[in-house]
Amino acid sequence: MSDKHHPKKRFGQNFLIDETVIHRIISCIQPTNQDALIEIGPGFGALTHKLLIAQPALSIIEIDNDLVKFWHGQTKTHTQLHIHHQDVLTVDFKSLATIAAKPLRIVGNLPYNISSPLLFHLFSFDDVIHDMCFMLQKEVVDRLCATPNSKTYGRLSIMAQYYCDIYKLFEVPNTAFKPAPAVTSAICRLIPKKAHARYPIDPVKLAECVRLAFTMRRKTLPNALKGLVTVEQIISLGLDPKLRPENLSLLDFCHLAELT
User: Fold this and answer.
1) Residues 189 and 215 in one domain
2) Do 38 and 104 meet the contact criterion of CB atoms below 8 Å apart?
3) Most buried of 64, 119, 135, 205 (most Cβ within 10 A)?
4) Which H, E and C letters describe the chain, residue by residue?
5) 238: how many CB neighbours lie within 10 A of its CB?
6) Within a 10 A sphere around the Cβ of 2, how many other Cβ atoms?
7) Is residue 49 part of a domain?
């Protein structure tokens, strides 16, 4: 990391510096020169330089003007490096997949302050993504992997598991970063499910049902879903109306969404 660059809180910058962790991440990704690799938030290249060894035509997405300037300086050495200077939440990943002519492999140490919105953005491009390997706040990874009847289970859990198979790989201590964040991180892999492997429900309907339910997660189903489904409809699915949203499985929510 350059001594001249001060990490910017507004971009959630915490730069990875632990070589052992970096090598473990690369081992998990197993990049090749056949991959359409995209790195989100490369920083000063803790992962990037190792990804470039495997795939010189790497694409990076960076919003920070100073870091973009740094990477433009690197293109003299890495002539096939593609730099996208923009907010990742505005990136059209379908266009990038069209240019690459293959599904994308997306990696990165995601900014904690936009991790959930970014994941939902990426889910909307699930049909052009091969897999994703991210470092996230451990709490977010736990929510992604959570099962019913747990405190961490919620909207993100259900929608992520609708779109992807999710694997928590390993945890990363805050000492692996500069500056050290106040939280522990974790590495996870998300593999989008094929359309035929998902329950055949309109994802917009499912998302609205789940959103409404977890707006009032401690209320019973009839109250949490008031105006969307009736008590009779809930009972018709074999569900106890005394249950709360956190007690329902992904399949239960798919069945409820079908009634809306």
Assistant:
1) no
2) yes
3) 135
4) CCCCCCCCHHHCCCEECCHHHHHHHHHHHCCCCCCEEEEECCCCCCCHHHHHHHCCCCEEEECCHHHHHHHHHHCCCCCCCEEEECCHHHCCHHHHHHHHCCCEEEEEECCHHHHHHHHHHHHCCHHHEEEEEEEEEHHHHHHHHCCCCCCCCCHHHHHHHHHEEEEEEEEECHHHEECCCCCCEEEEEEEECCHHHCCCCCHHHHHHHHHHHHHCCCCCHHHHCCCCCCHHHHHHCCCCCCCCHHHCCHHHHHHHHHCC
5) 8
6) 11
7) yes
- Let me know: does 104 contact 127? Beta carbons within 8 Å: no
Give pTM, 2 decimals.
0.90
C-alpha distances in angstroms, 168 versus 125, 133, 145, 190? 21, 10, 7, 9
Residues 213 and 109 placed together within one structural domain of the fold: no
Q: Which residue has the tokens 């009032």?
A: 216
Q: Does residue 3 lie within any of the structural domains?
A: no
**CATH number, domain containing residue 124:** 3.40.50.150
One domain, residues 169 and 207: no
pLDDT digits (tens, 9 = 90+) for 53-105: 999 999 999 999 999 999 999 999 999 999 999 999 999 999 999 999 999 99
Cα 260-220-145 angle, rounded to 5 deg: 80
Whether the CB-CB separation of 108 and 134 falls below 8 Å is answered with: yes
